[in-house]
Write a structure and sequence with these properties.
The chain is α+β, with helices and mostly antiparallel strands and about 90 residues long. The chain has a four-stranded antiparallel β-sheet. It has one domain (about 1-90): YcgL domain (NE1680-like fold, Roll), CATH 3.10.510.20. The longest helix is centred in the last third of the chain and has 14 residues, at about 75-90. The chain has three helices and four strands, in the order ββαβαβα. About 15% of the residues are buried.
């Protein structure tokens, strides 16, 4: 399965995976708004991969098959939540 990945010009870490290279017009309005001016990042052949760097490949494949796209959200929120959890576990001195 070939897919095409676009990055957001507005939000660092926001990517959209598409089944069709020119499929941006099929995205829901809120997703398009978050992308700003989408920038082509790469094409990936998912049939030749066992994993992806930041996404579960099974979820990506399912979303592409079911809806024609997959949205990868920025990791900055996860980083802040992990940091807060670490700080809450520190022993007060």
């Amino acid at each position: 399965m070939q897919c095409f990945v676009y990055r957001s010009s507005l939000k660092d870490g926001l990517y959209v995976y598409l089944v069709e290279e020119e499929g941006l017009e099929k995205l829901p309005g809120p997703v398009l708004k978050q992308l700003g001016e989408p920038e082509f990042a790469m094409s990936i052949d998912l049939s030749k991969r066992k994993s992806l760097g930041h996404e579960d490949i099974t979820t990506v494949r399912k979303n592409l098959a079911d809806q024609g796209f997959h949205v990868q959200m920025p990791r900055s929120i996860e980083h802040l939540m992990e940091q807060a959890a670490r700080e809450s576990r520190k022993d007060p001195k």
